[in-house]
Design a protein that fits this description.
It is a single chain. This protein has 16 helices and 26 strands. By secondary structure, it is α/β, with parallel strands linked by helices. The protein has three domains: about 1-240, Metallo-beta-lactamase, Chain A (4-Layer Sandwich), CATH 3.60.15; about 260-355, Rhodanese-like domain (Oxidized Rhodanese, domain 1, 3-Layer(aba) Sandwich), CATH 3.40.250; about 360-460, Oxidized Rhodanese, domain 1. Helix 15 links the parallel strand 25 (about 415-420) and strand 26. Helix 3 (about 155-170) packs across helix 5 (about 220-225). The longest helix is centred in the middle third of the chain and has 16 residues, at about 155-170.
């Protein structure tokens, strides 16, 4: 058996290539949209990808099922309750799929979504103990899938949590302790609240260490898994819908069109948004006026999906050579609206200071002076609820970055504003969005709450 986990760090997303060496037949589970790695695996092992299985309709990324089917002729498959606009195979609960010696068993495991399935993998059809189980977003290492993402479309989080309880206890935790659990996500994903950085673990270890499968009643479980969930990025509903539909395929090979400054300015005048993918330090030293800063070194696509709209044209401003990567990472969440990139951005900005702005960033000492000296200061904490439980700066307004767009009108654009996050990355995103939204005086905190907390701990009594 060939078994490969393909892990995408920037989205904390796992997909899987499973092949039978005796027949050369292969399956891909939950592929990302840029499918070249799976095609490379198939070529390396001399295999044919015959089936693409989706464990559910993903909300956090646009899956590559259509791209992979187009490239290989593979059939797309979902659990039997899923409805798709494109041709797809329905997989029944308990159905077994033979690749030769390798056998897959489908188990319906609703709870994260109604159509969620898990896939039990047997290296040999006669094996009593499975090699592993691919749980999608039903169960993670140290956590389970959140049941609240569909609560706005007719299914309550409590109803899904009740289904999740049954799926865990009747379909997944009945597997032998030796079975290896392979989840759909790891730490950093917004699809759960307590995900481990590990990307595989035995069922036995999870039986010991995962809070969600500890002995408790169904009502206790519902209460535990529905509380304390972070606000999901705004694009989640868009992707969950788009993953059901026929849509345009991604061309991985093309880079965005190079644009002159005049062309970029004309596009912005027509409604496009300049997206600067450099780090906060470089962005602060000089950027195109009106730009939003989302650095490639972070959770770039996820943050972009929370701040930008998929219907708005985007012009990229990147370090030279990163234009294609910037475009593809946006395409992974279905944002195909990149119309080009600013050519020679550093030199262009240097040559046109009339179109260039600098960002205001304060250190902890500067923030303390502002708190003491600036009347009517507006302090904004853009961390998630789970982060702010550990403390906030006194007087701060909690506005999670994932909800900044919808909560922007609750803030005063005329008050001097200082925004902070955990370490200074998200605050640069938020500050740039606020400035674009008409705020007159915005700074962000270097080092974020971590720097503030450390300085407070070491301050003399």
């Amino acid at each position: 058996m060939i078994f490969e986990q393909h892990y995408l760090e920037c989205l904390s997303q796992a997909s899987y290539f499973i092949g039978d060496e005796t027949t050369g037949r292969a399956v891909v589970v939950d592929p990302r949209r840029d499918v070249a790695p799976y095609l490379a695996s198939a070529a390396e092992h001399g295999m044919t990808i015959e089936l693409v299985i989706e464990t559910h309709f993903h909300a956090d990324f646009l899956s590559g099922h259509l791209e992979l089917a187009a490239a290989t002729g593979a059939t797309i498959a979902y659990g039997s309750v899923a409805e798709t606009e494109f041709p797809s195979r329905r997989l029944a609960d308990g159905e077994r799929i033979s690749l030769g010696e390798v056998t897959l068993e489908i188990r319906h495991t609703p709870g994260h979504t109604p159509e969620s399935i898990s896939i039990v993998v047997y290296e040999n059809a006669i094996d009593e103990t499975p090699y592993g189980v691919l749980t999608g977003d039903t169960m993670f290492i140290g956590d389970v899938g959140r049941p609240d993402l569909l609560s706005s479309v007719g299914v309550t989080s409590e109803e899904l949590a009740a289904q999740l309880y049954e799926s865990l206890h009747n379909k997944i935790m009945t597997l032998p302790d030796e079975t290896i659990l392979y989840p759909g996500h790891g730490a950093g994903s917004s699809c759960g609240k307590n995900l481990s950085s590990a990307t595989s673990c035995s069922i036995g270890k999870q039986r010991q260490n995962n809070y969600a499968v500890a002995p408790m009643s169904k009502d206790e479980f519902i209460a535990v898994v529905t509380e304390g969930q972070s606000a999901p990025p705004a694009y989640f509903a868009y992707d969950a819908t788009l993953n059901r539909k026929s849509r345009k395929l991604l061309d991985e090979s093309t880079s965005p069109t190079a644009m002159t400054l005049d062309e970029v300015l004309a596009a912005c005048e027509a409604g496009a948004i300049p997206l600067d993918t450099r780090g906060p330090v470089d962005f602060a030293t000089g950027h195109l006026a009106g730009s939003i800063n989302i650095g490639l070194s972070g959770r770039y696509a996820e943050f972009a999906g929370g701040i930008l709209s998929p219907a708005t044209d985007i012009v990229l401003i990147t370090e030279p050579g990163y234009e294609r990567e910037s475009r593809i990472r946006l395409a992974r969440i279905g944002f195909d609206n990149v119309i080009g990139h600013l050519v020679n951005p550093i030199q262009t900005l240097s040559d046109h200071p009339d179109h260039t702005q600098r960002s205001s960033r304060l250190d902890v000492a500067g923030l303390r002076r502002a708190i003491e000296d600036v009347p009517n200061l507006q302090l904004v904490d853009v961390r998630q609820p789970g982060e702010t439980e550990g403390g906030i700066i006194n007087g701060a307004i909690k506005v999670p970055l994932t909800r900044l767009n919808e909560m922007l009108t609750t803030l005063d654009t005329d008050r001097p504003t200082i925004v902070y996050c955990a370490g200074g990355f998200r605050s640069s995103i938020a500050a740039s969005r606020m400035i674009r939204g008409g705020f007159n005086d915005v700074s962000d905190l270097l080092g974020g709450y971590g720097a503030w907390d450390a300085a407070t701990d070491t301050a003399p009594a």
